[in-house]
Amino acid sequence: MKTLIRISTAAALAAGLSLGGTAAQAAGGHGGPELMHPSWSFEGIYGRYNEDQLKRGWEVYAQVCASCHPLDYMHYRNLEGLGYTEDEVKEIAAQFEVRDGPDEWGEMFTRPATPPDAFAEPYENDALAKLANGGVVPPNLSVMTRARDGGADYVYSLMLGYEGGVPEWVHEEDPDFALPPGKSFNAYFPGYAISMPEQLFEGAVTYSDGTEATPEQMAKDVTAFLQWAAEPELEDRKELGRYTLLFLIVFTGVLYAYKREIWKDAH
Fold first, then answer.
1. Looking at the domain assignment, is residue 42 inside a domain?
2. Between helices 215-230 and 51-60, what is the axis angle to 10°?
3. φ, ψ for residue 98, nearest 5 deg
4. Could you report the per-residue pLDDT of 172-225, keeping only the tens digit for each?
5. How far apart are CA 137 and CA 118, in angstroms?
6. Structural domain boundaries, residue 7
7. What is the dihedral of CA 64, 62, 219, 224, to 10 degrees?
8. pTM, full prediction
9. d(Cα 171, Cα 149) in Å, to the nearest integer?
10. What total of structural domains would you count in the chain?
11. What is the Cα–Cα distance from 23 to 15, expressed in whole angstroms?
12. Is the distance from CB of 223 to CB of 156 less than 8 angstroms?
């Protein structure tokens, strides 16, 4: 009975995969525009990650985001899940410095990272992070696409939601709205005033595969990478859900046939 309950629960989760995109299309709940919804390869019950896109997303994160935002739950060895070889991961990790120690003199030191190391932290502590970012600690991005209403759509929209000034529709919504000093306007951020300035400009990243680095391309790639970071097991979970649904369909047919056989002489 417990096994059957677990299977039924898994089936319900699998069925929900095809509905997950609906909530993602809602606006951020603050009266702003509806979230943008590009097509995602990982959507739907048959969705899968695109390795080429994930690699590009890693390059955007490494070249743009990693200087401020940590990925606390990721280790460099996890990059093999993007299709990198073991030697490539070693080369990637060696480009970053991590703190280690204490040494024989009781001192902490830095060294090149290795695959087993967690991703390098951009700041030694929160105090330094606040000092460098206008009093705000940049959030950990490990589960960002799962932690925000709208998921991947929210992150994508946020990256592209900057405007040079406060648009007229905001003043129509709130005549007293004023952008605080040191803040940037973002149409998709709750309250519209965000501490992070715009990051994605034409050519801001050099893609190793030669893809043109437009803001839209970079936003989509890094969002897909962050989705993978939050749910690296997504493909396995969906495959399990499909098999579970198939099993339940067959099992239901068997039970129905069994019921017909038992009760065939009842009337």
1. yes
2. 100
3. -125, 155
4. 989 999 999 989 999 999 999 999 999 999 999 999 999 999 999 999 999 999
5. 19
6. 2-49+140-262
7. -160
8. 0.80
9. 25
10. 1
11. 15
12. yes
